[in-house]
């Protein structure tokens, strides 16, 4: 195992350039001496000047005034010296903290590359804790954990090249990331940070309840070969979650009960040859879900019981040769679901028991050489728009 052990650039508050300590005392002495000399000359002038018609200046008053001024000057200089010393101490302390944090980074990275799974697990927790303690380099620590998931991985523990305990380490990383995405208001939240899983292999993972409110979560070119990657109850209110070019050959990605109020979820050019994506009882009030140019040759996408009150779901130019799309029991009151330019050669698009009180479902330019569009027991109100496009000879089961 190997990980990136480069020490991150140490960032922190800028410590202003200060004069050397040995200069302060001589400068203060010169200033006080000059002030004392000036006061002496002033007092001498007052005592020797003619004071015709005026009461003479008393020597004790002059001495008292001189001492008061000197005391105030000394207090000001002492305050400046103390403030300057405090700045020096804070700068030294911050440099020491930054060095300690960088050392922790190096140690955690070395643990992640260890041969023993228990040590790698310790490295996961150490890197996550460091991300919490080091806001300036939080993204760097997150990048290291994501990079670990992008490393070559053999899901079958009995296969050649499988690494002992590796699956548990990977699932722990995913759970750790999830735990930091559940509360956007927490001081140690990772919401808004980028998560790069490009090309990673997933045979499970738990993102339940995660909040994606910014940044980019990138599963592009990833492979879902088994298990369930769980986004149940997740919230997508901003940023992007990308599955562009991902392969679903056996796994399931489950967005059931998730809420989409903004942002984008992309499955552009995704390949569904055995896996499936579930949006059962999900809520779409904004944002975009794209399956543009996706290929469905076996299992498909299920939106059963979902609510569409805003936003858009695109299947434009997708190909369905075996997998289907199910909207059974879904409610449409304002969203757009578009199949424009899609090709159906043996699949079913099911809207049975769905309710259309608004929004648009469009099949413009779609091609059917087999398969069925099913609106059995659906309720379509006048406010809804169903755009059938040019196909006239396909079986459409309407209510």
> Helical content, roughly?
25-40%
Give the SSE string: HHHHHEEEEEEEEEEEEEEEEEEEEEEEEE
Q: What is the 3D shape? A: elongated
The end-to-end span amounts to 59 Å
Mean of pLDDT: 81
Percent strand equals: 25-35%
What's the total number of strands? 25
Number of helices: 5
Main pleated-sheet profile = 15 strands, parallel
Structural class: alpha/beta
Radius of gyration: 35 Å
Low-confidence stretches are 10-19, 390-397
Structure in a nutshell:
The protein has five helices and 25 strands. The protein is α/β, with parallel strands linked by helices and 399 residues long.
Report what the structure shows:
By secondary structure, the chain is of the alpha/beta class. The longest helix is centred in the first third of the chain and has 54 residues, at 59-112. It is built from five helices and 25 strands. α1 packs antiparallel against α2 and α3 (117-133) packs parallel to α5 (166-179). The strands form two sheets. It has a 15-stranded parallel sheet that branches. Strands 1, 4, 7, 10, 13, 16, 19, 21, 23 and 24 form a ten-stranded parallel sheet that branches. Helices cover 32% and strands 27% of the residues.
């Amino acid at each position: 195992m190997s990980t990136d052990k480069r020490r991150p650039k140490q960032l922190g508050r800028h410590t202003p350039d200060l004069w050397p300590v040995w200069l302060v005392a001589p400068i203060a002495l010169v200033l006080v001496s000059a002030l004392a000399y000036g006061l002496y000359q002033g007092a001498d002038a007052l005592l020797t000047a003619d004071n015709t018609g005026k009461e003479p200046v008393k020597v004790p008053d002059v001495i008292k005034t001189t001492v008061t001024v000197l005391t105030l000057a000394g207090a000001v200089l002492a305050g400046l010296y103390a403030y300057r010393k405090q700045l020096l101490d804070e700068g030294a302390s911050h440099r020491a903290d930054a060095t300690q944090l960088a050392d922790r980074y190096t140690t955690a990275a070395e643990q992640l590359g260890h041969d023993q799974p228990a040590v790698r697990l310790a490295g996961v927790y150490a890197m996550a804790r460091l991300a919490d303690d080091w806001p300036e380099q939080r993204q760097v620590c997150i990048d290291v954990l994501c990079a670990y998931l992008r490393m070559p991985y053999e899901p079958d523990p009995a296969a050649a090249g499988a690494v002992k305990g590796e699956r548990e380490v990977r699932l722990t990383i995913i759970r750790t990331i999830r735990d930091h995405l559940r509360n956007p208001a927490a001081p140690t939240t990772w919401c808004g940070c980028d998560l790069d899983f490009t090309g990673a292999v997933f045979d499970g993972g738990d993102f339940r309840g995660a909040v994606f409110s910014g940044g980019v979560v990138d599963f592009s070119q990833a492979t879902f070969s088994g298990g369930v990657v769980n986004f149940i109850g997740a919230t997508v209110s901003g940023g992007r979650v990308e599955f562009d070019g991902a392969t679903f050959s056996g796994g399931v990605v489950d967005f059931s009960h998730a809420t989409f109020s903004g942002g984008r979820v992309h499955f552009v050019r995704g390949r569904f040859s055995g896996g499936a994506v579930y949006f059962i009882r999900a809520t779409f009030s904004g944002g975009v879900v794209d399956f543009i140019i996706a290929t469905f040759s076996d299992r498909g996408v299920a939106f059963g019981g979902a609510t569409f009150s805003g936003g858009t779901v695109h299947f434009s130019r997708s190909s369905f040769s075996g997998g289907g799309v199910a909207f059974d029991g879904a409610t449409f009151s304002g969203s757009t679901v578009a199949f424009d330019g899609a090709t159906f050669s043996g699949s079913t698009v099911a809207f049975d028991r769905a309710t259309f009180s608004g929004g648009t479902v469009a099949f413009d330019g779609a091609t059917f050489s087999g398969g069925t569009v099913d609106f059995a027991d659906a309720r379509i109100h006048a406010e809804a728009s169903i755009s059938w496009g040019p196909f006239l000879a396909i079986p459409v089961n309407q209510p």
